Amino acid sequence: MRLHILSKNKETVQLSLRGFGVWRRENPGLLLSVLICGIADAVTPYVDIWLLARLLDEIAGGRNPQLLAAHALALMGTNAVLSLLCAGLTRWKNVPLSCLWHTQNKVFMEKLLSMDFADMESSYVQELRSRIWQNTDSGGWGLYKLIDCLDAIIRSVMSMLSAFLLTASLFLMPVTEGSGRLTILNHPVFILLMAAVMIGVTFAAPLFSVKAGSYWVKYAAENQLGNRLFGFWLGSLGNDRAKALDVRIYRQDILSRSNLKKYNPFLPTAKLARAARGPMGGYQALSGAVSQIFVGAAYIFVCLKALGGAFGVGRIVQYVSAIIALSGGLSALIQALGDLKNNTPFLRTVFEFLDMPNRSRSNPESMSVKTDKGYTFEFRNVSFKYSGQEHYALRNVSMTFHAGQRLAVVGMNGSGKTTFIKLLCRLYDPTEGEILLNGTDIRQYDYHAYMQLFSVVFQDFRLLSFALGQNVAGSRNYDRDKAAQCLRDAGFGTRLDKLRAGLSTSLYKDFDENGVDISGGEAQKIALARALYKDAPFVILDEPTAALDPVAEFEVYSRMNQLIGQKSAVFISHRLSSCRFCDDIAVFHEGRLIQRGSHDALVGDRAGMYYQLWSAQAQYYAAQEESVQM
Ligand code: ADP
């Protein structure tokens, strides 16, 4: 995606102010501490310069011992006090400053967590998110850059103000009449010319530097891609436990040097590196050269004036230091403003992401969920297409479901079973048709209250590397007895008894070396316990048992069927045997609901899909019957 290099200043101001707003809200105290610390740091050297000039003037002039001692004491005392003050202020600033990374991640993470599932999953959001991370990683661009720029702007403005106060008299103090040709230095035209050259040179240096910085923007898209691929190659492929096995068996030349070279944006052959050797480096060198010319010119001007008797040695130090600082301050200001401008497209990406509407949670008129008189769900002619997909994952599905019912949803892989559940759980909105709860479109209900209705165990459920009990409860503080009971009910009791730290045992070793690794079957029991702990009125098992054999899956499903008592439940499986205890079976095929009824009724329909699937899978049931009888 192309970044616009030339961004309008208005947009720069608007986005930067919004960015500062984010920092002010999320990290109170940060902006104020940067402001005050910047002022103190910037002004301090000028107090020194001024006092030092007075001391040198006295050494070169009157040499009054008392005055000399007073100047020296003032210099040392002020220095000590100001240094102490600056150190204290820096410490104050460093606390919120050290939280920058954390704060920024928190902002993005909260956005991701509150975003509609469909949006979060979309490639558009993934791309945005990845670009933001790459921009921050590669050059601190985005929200981060704002703090650097603010710091630089405050310091440079204060530095320029102080330097200006110390420099102004340079142009006003004339050389003496008897200094021959040097009297030209008193001429107003010469003074103006000198000032103009100095200002011109001062502007030129940072402008070249900003021009050099614009190459970051120019190659941002390519850099981001390279950075991602490089991260994948060197970061993820080698480190990710989940991929380690496959990589070892199938890696072939994936990790070869030529691949690493091809996708590495940090090698000398990358475009940014070539630009750094070419025009980008050229502009940077020009910027440095112009600055040095300025310093030379300032020295000559000040020394000539001193030679003409305009002032003494102390003032030479004062003016030279102040002019260089003035120029440095102006350069830093232009550089910071240029950085702000270059940062505009990166901030645009940040706010494109943060401004994405959280539709399902932002309905101000959302209704509360009332299920005291029971509930009825109805799919009314629902069709659904995943974003960017041609074909429908669900087509014209109409069905009703009442409280307390047990429904089995069966069908081949890819027939739309999971999609049906995801729509019911409001992870996606139907493309056509509507889903009603007690006659009202589910989108009208308060999102959080609605989500409380469901305990779902998905096929690709994930446990977190936290304590076992926290995993079960989904919370840091939880009812330990209830968590333990749920684990026992889910069949994890024997293992729980063997865990030394019980519910406090960490799962996996990511954050705790005493953490335990758990098998797939154990993980699944914990996931079931998590569903039981939530105690929602509606339990859904979406093939979390797919890795088990049919016999084991049937046992898990039957057990859950008993455990959930009077609750409503949906059991999903592509293996018909797993759900045959359900009186109500819905058969999906190619996104359509094609049959519904009890096992006996469906298996009796010889022309139906259920019968076909049942016959095709019969070998498993024979094995199952045998094992159950044993
Ligand atoms: P089942 O649960 O019966 O195996 P799914 O509901 O997972 O079936 O899938 C139904 C169809 O939707 C399949 O063709 C599948 O490839 C497609 N599909 C599922 N998830 C996505 C997704 N996130 N993006 C695009 N297509 C998807």
Largest sheet: 6 strands, mixed
Task: Quickly give the structural class.
Answer: alpha/beta
Arithmetic mean of pLDDT: 84
CATH superfamily of the largest domain: ABC transporter type 1, transmembrane domain
Overall helicity: 55-70%
Distance between the termini: 63 Å
**CATH top-level class of the largest domain:** Mainly Alpha
CATH architectural group of the largest domain: Up-down Bundle
Distinct ligand kinds: adenosine-5'-diphosphate
The gyration radius over C-alpha positions equals 36 Å
Number of helices: 25
CATH fold category name of the largest domain: ABC transporter transmembrane region fold
Q: What fraction of residues sit in β-strands? A: 5-15%
The rough form would be described as elongated
Strand order of the largest sheet: 6-7-8-3-9-10
Describe the model.
Helix content is 61%, strand content 9%. With 630 residues, it is of the alpha/beta class. It has three domains: 12-354, ABC transporter transmembrane region fold, CATH 1.20.1560; 372-453 and 544-630, P-loop containing nucleotide triphosphate hydrolases (Rossmann fold, 3-Layer(aba) Sandwich), CATH 3.40.50.300; 464-535, P-loop containing nucleotide triphosphate hydrolases (Rossmann fold, 3-Layer(aba) Sandwich), CATH 3.40.50.300. Strands 6-7-8-3-9-10 form a six-stranded mixed β-sheet. A four-stranded antiparallel β-sheet has the order 2-1-4-5, with helices on one face. It is elongated. The two termini are 63 Å apart. It binds adenosine-5'-diphosphate. Adenosine-5'-diphosphate is lined by residues 386, 389, 393, 411, 413-419.
